[in-house]
Amino acid sequence: MATKKFVLFLAAGTVLVTGCSSLGSTPRPDGTASPQPEPSVRAVPKVPTDRLQVTRPLDKYAPDTADDTALKQAEAVVVNRCLRDLGHPQHPLDENAVAEAEPNIYEFLWFPEAARNGYSLPPEGPEKGSWDDTATQTEKKLLSGKMVTYKGHQVPKDGCYGEAGRELTEGASPPSKFEEQGMVITRVSDASPRGLIESYVSVIRQTLSLQIQQDSRIERVISRWSSCMKSDGYAYASPTEAATDARWQTNTGKGPSKAEKDTAIADMACKKRVRYLEVVVAVESAYEQRYISQHAEQMKEFLDLRDKWRKNAERVTGA
Fold this sequence. Notes:
Layout: E1 15-19, E2 25-27, E3 33-35, H1 65-85, H2 110-117, H3 131-134, H4 137-144, E4 149-150, E5 153-154, H5 159-168, E6 177-180, E7 183-187, H6 196-213, H7 216-231, H8 239-243, H9 258-274, H10 276-294, H11 296-317
Antiparallel strand pairs: 1-7, 2-3, 4-5, 6-7
């Protein structure tokens, strides 16, 4: 059975995340918390369910696929140059690698596949082996800086990845720490900037999630969804309850059961009927837009970092 995923994705190897969050309030003069009003929703958009991407306000601040491709290729150029300088030209990174867009709302995967996969994600195709899969321990140490010298050469501080990180962030060094409502991202020293702003955005969304879950419009659409499911013979209080039903979590090796697939089909039909995804995206967008307005200077810094890193990457590759 394909894997079920209910997690917050952060870029591996670039950050450490710690802390907890307390949300939905602003401080009063006496130090106690005063709840913020629910932000207004101007319009509920039409959300297509046949693709894996949806655009919300915070998305414009993170590098897009073209930006990520430029950074990925530039990182490979610098790392390969570093390895050559150390006397290790064999097994270079792919300097023509292309970044792929990732799904950003995982429930979208279930719509076209509910009848076949139930609440499991669609089976992934054969995965191409990454450079790390075939790298030797020596190569990994050269990239991470865990080897100090090699063939008489001094390995750069934090390795070839560290050298790439410094070159790509030249003149636009990201903060060593990003904190949002008690959640803290600590950047690994001289790590690649790839995925870093996405990690900031992920943490912002995580800290907004509690407010969004308690929003009256979300509560109403979930209530309508639950009533719709009840009319079809299913007793679930929320979509999360349906998706995480204990009966679906056991891997029998035979694929999703008929009961799981029937439930998923009814779930998707009810989501469409009550415009569940449209309401969720509209409400999330309203909270994100308010956050952006309240943190305008910080968000401008994100854009400046992204733009400067892209220029550095193009300088490295000659694009």
